[in-house]
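Thread: "does anyone have the structure for this chain?"

Original post by V.I.:
We have the sequence but no experimental structure in hand. Need at least a predicted one for the grant figures.
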Amino acid sequence: MSVPTPHAAALAEIPVREAEVTVLGSRTRYWEYGPRDAATTILLVHGYRGDHHGLEPVIALLPGIRFVSPDLPGFGASTPLTEAPHSIAGYERWLTAFAQAVQLPSDAILFGHSFGSMITSHAMADGFRARALILLNPISADPRTAAGVCITRLTRAYYGLARRLPTAIGRRLLGNWLVVQFMSMSLVTTRDKNLRSWVHEEHHRYFNGFSDPATVAEAFDASLSTEVGKAAPRVTVPVLMIAGEVDRIAPLSGQQATVGLFPDARLVVLPGVGHLVHYEAARGAADAIRDFVDAL
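Reply from O.Q.:
Generated one for you, tokens below.
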């Protein structure tokens, strides 16, 4: 039985527009939420194997802000890049070109969630123009070891096998219901049964929205290639980091070490939540974002 979406009523009150641009060979689909003439525009970059839907619970709680939310190339409704690799550097190039294509205002705020935090922080360090940076569940420790060396090696082997298999078989392997359910159960921290059920539904609904196994595997390699802290010293705009207290993918110790590497950053820690702040603690994230934006 389908579980009602949290904040659905609030999201229904926000105007939504859908469009597409071609960037570096990717037909990039994107969504605009909120008023066109809003004083604040935030460009969102979602996490690995997600799409624009994942951040909607946070968007729903921030009426009056204009959000531009693309599906990353190779995920959701966007096709893969053909003129750049699906690496952090390749996604950086895409992000810069996408912002130009949609005429993103120069005073916009850049926002990255999880894998998106790697892309956005490195883009800002390399000259992306924005007035501030928001990082939700940022990858602030070595991703090759943060979740456990054995788990990372097994996951890398899993994606490597999917890449080598015929496309149809590789897709079935990546989309296996048990694998997706295991992933979802390993990330959820809430004890609210309805919320847990909804989070699992979301993962089954959107986690398999990818173009092909090779692109997914290439992006997975990218997700292990760096961390936010390596870009932090070169990010000169104000930064907000929002972390989960019990995040096993991006442990709190890494967040506390990384915040001091930015010239101007603050860290908000949400208690009792892990790597799914956007699902399990959307209100806390939205409040932190509102306070940060109001103070700019």
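V.I.: this helps a lot. The chain has twelve helices and eight strands.
O.Q.: and The chain has a mean pLDDT of 94.
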